Each structure stands twice: as structure tokens, then as C-alpha cells.
Amino acid sequence: MAAPFRSVYRPLWRIITGSGRLTVGMRTFSFTENHFSAKNHKTASVGSPWTLHGAVCLQRLPVISQDRNPIEEEFSGLMQQMELERSLLSDHELRLLEDAARISRKQEEDYDSDEEEDYGDNEIVTAQDLEDAWEQKLKQFHPAQRSNGDKLDVSSSERCLADSLVLLIKQDVGSQKVWLLPQIQWKAEETLRQTAERALANLPGSDLKATFLGNAPCGFYKYKYPKDIQKEGSVGAKVFFFKAVTCSPKHLPLEKNSFAWVKKDELKDFLMPEYLKQVNRFIMSL
Q1: CA-CA distance, 227 to 235, in Å (whole number)?
Q2: pLDDT value at position 123?
Q3: Radius of gyration in angstroms for the set of CA atoms belonging to the chain, rounded to a whole number
Q4: Nearest to residue 191, comparing CAs of 153, 157, 229, 217?
Q5: Between the ranges 80-89, 148-157, 207-216, where is the mean pLDDT highest?
Q6: SS3 assignment, position 37
């Protein structure tokens, strides 16, 4: 049993007590009898034929609740009826009963005003007077419209307030202009999330305060450049998508028809089929 043990572990013993070099992966370890150190192993970088891009899927969250469907309307009416049947009288309703009882006593023949509470010189404000005052205030109140009438204006982030909207930018790809999620080419000194943040920050004149949802990409897409713009050694791009949300976006001062806020079911009217297939995998309808 001793011979196999020496044949297996003697190389490790020589590495520890001897001298030489050991390369593991991308690191080179140099060692002597009394010293062991590690240094980065520099290798010649091989250029990739694909360029990396970071993209951001920016969604504007719903501002108002969606309209109730018939089943929800029926259920809401049922719950209100149950709450009304089980509820007690409020202070205002009790005051209405007291006012009605007071008026009834005044109409009786044996009414004695000395038996009523002494209000002094103060004017009696009945519950009905309060209701009339509240009714006048209600007439002066005008609630905001749920439909602002600008559904066709896709450049406005205030459209379709009950739905979630996605920001699209028209970008140049070769000699064509296509609709894409905001994206920009990756730089060596930054992470892919930082690239996606830069793609949003580099929109001209934009002031979008967005919250990114995580550091890992939520989607991936790869496409080839048109043949007329393919560079030597670069055949296409690999795009990594990151998700972000915003609650109060401002209008982007970009050129007309260069950006759009669209719903998920409207993406098919803007994006290419293969690109849309990848985007639909991570966009949620909130």
C-alpha cells in the first residue's frame, strides 16, 4: 500500500517543498522551498465578434386603479349592502333623529318651550343645515378625469393612467430607424447595470428618476448588424436587459416621434417580432 501512496502524493509533496510554477485557470502561482506567492496571469485577450449593450426596460406604474368589471361591481354592491345592514347609526344620523323629535314636539298642542335645552342666543344649526352646506361644497368639487383623452399621444407619459407603460426609443441601426428599449454600448470599466443606468441618463434633457430592480439582467437578446455596417471582427450585438420603474416621469424633450410610452399589448405595433418575443418574457402587466 506504500508504493501507490507515494506515487499519488509525491508530486504534491514536491510542489510544496520544491520550487517551480503552477498555472490554474487564469492565475499563475510561483513557489520556492520557503516562499509561495500568486500573481495575475496575463493572457492575450481575444476580441469577441459581438459587442455588449446594456438596456433598460423602464415602466411607468399605474396612477389610478382600473375600472371594475361587472362581477367586481356586483360584489362591491353586495359588500356595501352587508356593511349597511350590520352597521350602527353614526353621530350625524343620531343628530337627525334628535332634530326630527324636536320638531315633532314643537308641533304638539301641549308643547312647553321651557322643557327644551337652553341654547341662549346661539343659533341652532341642525343636521339638515350641515347637509345643505356639505352639498354646496360637493358641487364645487370637480374630480380629475380617469380618461384624459390623450390615448393617441404616445409621447405623453400621462396617457392610460390605469395601465403600466413602457418607454421605447427610436434608434439608428445601420441605415434604418427601429424602436428599441433604451440601450447603449458597454464600457470596460463599468458593470452591465451601470451601462443600463447610463443608457437612461444619456437621453437628451431627460429627468427620469427610476428605481432599478436588482443587479442581474432580466432578459437577453442577440442580433446581427446589417451587412452594410458590419465592422471587421464585429458581427452583431448582445443586449442585456435590466428592469426599472418610475412613478412620476416627466416629458422627454426629444424630437417628435422619437420616443413613446406604450402598453404591453401595444408593443407589437412598435417592436420587431424576434425582439418582441424576448421582451414579452419579462414585462409584466401591472
Answers
A1: 8
A2: 64
A3: 36
A4: 217
A5: 80-89
A6: strand
Q: Is the pLDDT of residue 5 over 70?
A: no
Distances (CA, A) of 212 to 13, 52, 66, 94, 242: 51, 20, 25, 53, 7
Average pLDDT over residues 4-14: 44
- pLDDT one-digit tens code per residue, 86-123: 999 889 889 989 888 888 877 776 666 655 555 555 56
Q: What value does the mean pLDDT take over residues 206-231?
A: 82
Quick one: which H or E segment has residue 101? Answer: helix 91-106
**CA dihedral sign of residues 59, 65, 66, 72:** positive
The three three-digit cell numbers of residue 225, written as one number: 448588424
Q: Which 8-state DSSP code applies to residue 28?
A: E
Averaged pLDDT for residues 25-30: 47
Per-residue pLDDT tens over the stretch 139-152: 998 877 776 655 55
CA distance 200 to 207: 9
Is pLDDT larger for residue 34 or for residue 60? 60
